[in-house]
Design a protein that fits this description.
The protein has 398 residues and is an alpha+beta fold. 57% of the residues lie in helices and 20% in strands. The protein has 4 domains: 1-59; 62-161, Beta-Lactamase (2-Layer Sandwich), CATH 3.30.450.20; 170-256; 264-398, Histidine kinase-like ATPase, C-terminal domain (Heat Shock Protein 90). The longest helix is centred in the middle third of the chain and has 60 residues, at 163-222. Bound molecules: adenosine-5'-triphosphate and magnesium ion.
């Protein structure tokens, strides 16, 4: 028989252990209850957050979508469903991503998705999309891969309807093209009128003045040397007529330098530089390609007018003492460069919409795909560089 005291002691130890176990269990249960509450709270937060994002997505006036790698939609906001002309029911039955594009675009869409999944940088892509009823509209897709557990499982993105923007762009381009065409048209009318005026002044006025001069000589010959008063009058009249003849020549040449038509562009430029130096005192150092090049009159006059306007700008704004200009031609392109050693045009002046003279310079050669590039360095000077295709086949109109 065991000793009753020992039995008591053993029971007490067991009760103690049991109590201890119960306390541990209670703590564990309390911990589990807390964890469950925490989980519920987190779940609730998650639902709240998701609702917040869904509400925001539904508010967006653009399409938001998610799809799997086979192109099946997993989510689309109501705006998206409507703008592509589908219903939620259609979507539940199954609509494939490629159905959102006209057939001609689908290969490009597939390639773009593939390069996105291959790690290409995220960019936007413009497509012609199609609605359920087959009508089309212009869209811009921004997409990015959905990654789960390190693997691509689909794509999500935003689609913007850019039909209005495209229309506005087209209208803007049309009106710009029209304005350019109008400017070119006005320019050519102006040149035609100048040509007519130059001829009229030269031929009509010039002839009358020459006749007057001859009449004066006739009178002079018929007067006796004693008629000094009359002779001196005739001499001063003759001088006046000579001056007027010169003025008429100058005006008609400035209106349309006949040299361009008769002797070509280099000769006209050389003549203009001489005139310019006499008027302004600014030296113009010329390097002209003497090679005979077939530049049609319209292009030659355009280059000459650019030269004239550039030199006028130097005289008016540059505070320069010297100009260096060269004119070169190869079989395809004419290049002209006019450099001055003045204060230098600024970037703002080059790009200002108020610089109409500069706008005019560019427009002069634009109809033939020519370019005028202007640059300036402060207190070093300004450079105007012109390139112009010589042949008609180089024509472009950008
Ligand atoms: N060679 C130059 N050196 C320094 N500044 C220049 C030069 N050419 C042009 N500029 C600056 O650029 C501005 C714009 O030139 P632009 O030819 O367009 O107009 P403008 O000569 O003032 O007037 P216009 O319409 O009569 O030609 C000028 O007002 C001037 O400030
Ligand atoms: Mg000017």
């Amino acid at each position: 028989m065991s000793c009753p005291i020992k039995q008591d002691m053993e029971q007490t130890a067991e009760i103690k252990k049991l109590k201890n176990d119960i306390r541990h269990l209670k703590n564990r249960i309390a911990e589990l209850v807390r964890a469950e509450e925490e989980l519920k709270r987190a779940e609730h937060e998650l639902i709240k957050k998701e609702k917040k994002f869904r509400d925001l997505v539904e508010l967006l006036p653009q399409t938001v979508y998610e799809m799997d790698l086979q192109g099946n939609f997993k989510f689309t906001n109501n705006y998206g469903i409507k703008s592509f002309g589908y219903t939620q029911e259609d979507l539940n039955k199954g609509v494939n991503f490629l159905q959102l594009f006209i057939p001609e675009e689908r290969e490009r869409v597939k390639n773009n998705i593939q390069s996105l999944l291959n790690g290409a940088k995220l960019t936007s892509n413009e497509y012609t999309s199609q609605r359920k009823d087959g009508s089309t509209f212009q869209t811009l897709f921004y997409s990015s891969p959905i990654i789960q557990n390190g693997k691509h499982v689909g794509l999500r993105g935003v689609v913007i309807d850019i039909t209005d923007r495209k229309k506005a762009e087209r209208e803007l381009k049309n009106s710009r093209d029209q304005l350019r065409a109008l400017a070119t048209h006005l320019q050519s009318i102006r040149e035609e009128e100048r040509l007519i005026m130059a001829r009229e002044i030269h031929d009509e006025l010039g002839q009358v003045l020459t006749a007057l001069k001859m009449d004066l000589i006739w009178m002079q010959k018929r007067l006796s040397p004693e008629q000094t008063e009359q002779l001196s009058k005739i001499s001063s009249m003759s001088e006046l007529v000579d001056m007027t003849i010169k003025t008429v020549r100058r005006i008609s040449t400035e209106l349309r330098p006949g040299l361009i038509d008769d002797l070509g562009l280099p000769a006209a430029i050389e003549w203009y530089c001489g005139e310019f130096k006499n008027r302004t005192g600014i030296i113009c150092d010329l390097d002209l390609d003497e090679k005979e090049h077939q530049l049609e009159p319209d292009r030659a006059i355009a280059v000459f007018r650019i030269f004239q306007e550039s030199l006028t700008n130097v005289a008016r704004h540059a505070k320069a003492t010297k100009i260096y200009a060269h004119l070169k031609c190869n079989d395809h392109t004419l290049t002209m460069e006019i450099k001055d050693n003045g204060i230098g045009i600024t970037r703002e002046q080059i790009n200002s919409h108020k610089s109409l003279g500069i706008v005019g310079l560019r427009e002069r050669v634009n109809p033939w795909g020519g370019k005028v590039i202007i640059s300036g360095v402060q207190n070093i000077g300004t450079t105007v560089k012109v390139t112009l295709p010589i042949q008609a086949e180089n024509m472009s109109n950008d």
